[in-house]
Backbone:
């Protein structure tokens, strides 16, 4: 039996890489205010159900071999479960969040203090962390229009030394970039075009000619709020058409049920902040720069 030639229709190049995620147990989850169209305080939400569903998400990551670290939830911060908003971590450098609404403001310092020992930067401009910053190999995609200020895109670029590409969001249901787009790997993405301005749609078409395009029905169940490790994609179970597309493209789909958290406008990615340690990519300048800015304290790297 020879195994050298992949069968037609399989994508032998899909490769998972192990990730490190920071997450926050939704012990104090509730819908008590409305800062996006998904939230209805009159209907509320149930913390116990949210915890059970969130534990399913943690279990899915651990089954895939990813490392999950936890930050303590804070009473009175019902949205703190949405760890993606807490910071942006690239090359071991932590760009802090500065929330758009006062209801979430205290989450910024709470997340930043978890990263003690890392090289951190307090943001001067409003930004909601990985909710609006999605990191690819060569650049970072950044959303604006509802939460993150465009000035934060430049601030993040200057701090992280990675090019940042601004994308304009136009549909209030998809108020964070991570509700409209997710990286499939370091080079390609899936997105819902209707969430973006006409100009940004052209930018996306130019950058990602092979992108997976999702339907409005996929987006409406927050199907774009998914987490890929390059091969396995953790995604809301109801995003049926998108799941089929991804499977046809050679990805392993891992469906999860986070309906309770969706009452606050969140899905799997919102609950997940990726911790990217210093890049191992070697180039003459990068290696020198990395030596000069060693970000990890003695014990901090293994928290
Ligand atoms: N209720 C939260 C808010 O509106 C949900 C945040 C979802 N997080 C995300 N990364 N999209 O801020």
Residues:
């Amino acid at each position: 039996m020879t195994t050298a030639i992949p069968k037609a229709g399989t994508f032998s190049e899909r490769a998972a890489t192990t990730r490190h995620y920071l997450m926050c147990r939704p012990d104090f989850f509730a819908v008590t205010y409305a800062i996006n169209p998904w939230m209805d305080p009159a209907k509320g939400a149930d913390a116990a159900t949210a915890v059970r569903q969130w534990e399913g998400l943690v279990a899915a990551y651990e089954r895939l071999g990813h490392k999950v670290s936890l930050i303590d939830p804070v009473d009175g911060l019902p949205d703190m479960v949405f760890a993606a908003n807490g910071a942006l971590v690239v090359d071991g450098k932590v760009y802090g969040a500065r929330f758009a609404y006062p209801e979430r403001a205290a989450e910024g310092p709470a997340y930043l203090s978890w990263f003690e020992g890392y090289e951190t930067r307090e943001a001067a401009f409003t930004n909601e962390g990985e909710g609006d910053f999605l990191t690819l190999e060569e650049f970072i995609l950044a959303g604006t229009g509802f939460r993150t200020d465009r000035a934060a895109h430049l601030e993040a670029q200057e701090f992280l030394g990675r090019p940042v590409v601004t994308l304009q969001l136009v549909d209030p249901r998809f108020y964070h970039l991570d509700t409209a787009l997710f990286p499939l790997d370091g080079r390609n993405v899936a997105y819902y075009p209707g969430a973006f301005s006409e100009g940004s749609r052209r930018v996306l078409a130019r950058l990602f000619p092979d992108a997976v395009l999702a339907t409005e029905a996929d987006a409406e169940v927050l199907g774009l709020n998914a987490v890929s490790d390059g091969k396995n994609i953790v995604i809301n179970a109801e995003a049926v058409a998108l799941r089929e597309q991804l499977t046809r493209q050679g990805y392993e789909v891992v469906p999860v049920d986070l309906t309770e958290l969706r009452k606050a406008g969140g899905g799997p990615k919102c609950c997940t902040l990726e911790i990217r340690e210093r890049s191992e990519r070697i180039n003459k300048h990068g290696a020198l720069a990395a030596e000069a800015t060693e970000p990890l304290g003695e014990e901090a790297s293994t928290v």
The longest strand covers residues 140-144. Helices lie at 47-63, 107-114, 150-160, 198-207, 216-220, 240-248, 259-262, 284-292.
